[in-house]
Each structure stands twice: as structure tokens, then as C-alpha cells.
Design a protein that fits this description.
With 233 residues, the chain is of the alpha/beta class. It has 2 domains: 159 residues, Rossmann fold, CATH 3.40.50; 65 residues, no CATH class. The strands form 2 sheets. A 6-stranded mixed beta sheet has the order 6-7-8-3-9-10, with helices on both faces. A 4-stranded antiparallel beta sheet has the order 2-1-4-5, with helices on one face. Strand 9 and strand 10 form a beta hairpin.
Length: 233
Amino acid sequence: MLRLRNVSGGYGQRLVIEGVSIEVGSGETVAILGANTAGKTSLIRAILGLLPKTSGTVEFNGQDISLVPAHRRSQVGLACVPEGRHVFTDMSVMDNLLIGAYHRRSEIADKDIQGCFDLFPRLAERRDQRAGTLSGGEQQMVAIGRALMAKPSLLLLDEPSHGLAPLMVAEVHAAIASVNSRGIGVLLVEQNVASALKVVNRGYVLESGRVALSGTAEELAGNDEVRRTYLGI
């Protein structure tokens, strides 16, 4: 589904990702792991066309989208939940969800909204509530639901557990598994390595903008360097 080949990019003369090659298969859940400043968010930005790219290709569903403008990448099947959620605080939960389908307004069906409510029943209860009055975890639910309203084939999630209580992290990660069960691929960027490895098939570890390790979730969880550096074992 998604394939990056030797992608490098950055700002000015400074590269923030260098020679990155990763793949996400159809319906697969893959993690991008690493510490702060490892280049995880920059990699997401490169996939979305928001990071100036100096070399390499970004392919999606067999098509080279390297030159596709960022504002059109949602139309090819990509959707992103950014770090920090960025909900529209003065708008209702329902209106936030509808904004996610802005490029397919004529196709919106009640079942699309219901799909979000099935995933997060709490949002149904708060559909008319201003998003800014919700808890951090509920706002994350809104952000995920908003992205799903675009009907993506690949969902990019940037640090969805950041700032959330452990119980809410577990709920969000359970939702990720549910999204994947619907046939939607997931690329999960996480600093919470222990939690991420419970919900993904495979993962890549970034260090200083480069892929340092890759493997199945089981392989990474059992890797001595990963255990020592990220799991504290």
C-alpha cells in the first residue's frame, strides 16, 4: 500500500530524515518508534507532502505520489491524526466529524457518522457538545473519528497516546485495532513503545532520522537494544 524508497528531506541544508525506506502493506498496522527528535513526525510530514523532500519516492497503492500536492493526498486515501489532536474547539463534535469529509460532501451517509459512534460511543453522547470542553482523551477520539470520515485506506496517527492517562491510552489503542479490523491500514507513530508493540504487526525504529532497526512486533519487543533503550528492561 505505502512504500517509501530512500526518502530524505528537511529544511534548508538540514536533513531531518535521511535515506528512509519503509513499507505498510494493505490492512497492516505498522509502528514508527523512537525517541524525541528521532524524526518520527518529520516522516509523517514527508508522507503527507508537507516536508521538503530532497530525494527518494513516496508510493501509495502503486502510484508515485511524490509530486502530488499535500492538499490532494487525502483524496488518494491518506488521512492523518496529528500530534496534539488539533480539534476545532468552538465547534461541536458533530461538526468536527463532518469537516473530516469536506472533500466528499456529496457522498456523506449516516452510516459514516454511525461508524464513528460505533467506534467511540462516548462521542454519540456528546455530539452537540463543543469539542473544546471535552477531555484530552475524548478530543483524541474526535480527531480519529474526523480522520476516518475521509474514508482512508491508510490512517496515519502521530503520537495518539501523548498526554493521555493510561486507561485512555488503552482505549485509544483498542480503537486502533478496531480500525484495522475494518481493513484500514494504520501507520502508528509512538514514543510509548511498550503500548505500541501490543497493537502492531511490525515496526521500524528511527534514530537521528534514519531507520536503525525493523522487525515484527515480537522481534522488536525481544530485541535487547529496544528493551534497554525504550522499555527500561
